[in-house]
Amino acid sequence: MPEGEVGEMVVTTLRKEAAPLIRYRTRDLTKIIPGVCPCGSLMPRHDRILGRSDDMFIFRAVNIYPSHIDQILSNIREVGSEYQVVLYRKDKGGKDHMTIRVERAQGVSHSHDSDKHIRKAIEKEIKRQILVSCDVEVEDYGSLPRSERKTKRVYDNRDA
Description:
The chain is an alpha+beta fold. It folds into two domains: 7-52, no CATH class; 57-156, ANL, C-terminal domain (GMP Synthetase, Chain A, domain 3). Helices cover 18% and strands 34% of the residues. It has two helices and eleven strands. It has helices spanning 66-74, 112-130; strands spanning 7-12, 23-30, 32-33, 45-46, 51-52, 57-59, 62-64, 79-89, 96-104, 135-139, 154-156. It is elongated, with a radius of gyration of 20 Å.
């Protein structure tokens, strides 16, 4: 990738002689930082990890990473750590819709006004940061599934 453009990090042995050429796809998205390191190292430098290429989804022509949604939700105090993103179409060939199901944080009481506040705050931040509209459903704490391993966050129910 050209300097400054986001791409997938690949680790390889391009300059090693008498060794097999191995390329390892990390699936981490980052970009090359141009210029020489102030410390004098000549090795290429990369920016922080911006996301992963294997969990990205496209919604209304916008590339979205669950980690970005996770970051937005983690900044809302009344929301717990579990969430789900459900993608669907109401009509065949119609417009895509996204619903984000979140849990209230432990100890946050259920009321119509507090749920409305949580919904509006999430919808506003998703629109501001990711530039797409979504619906939000607020669930009771502990109602979304948990897993000891990587939890499935995105459910794409759109027709191919």
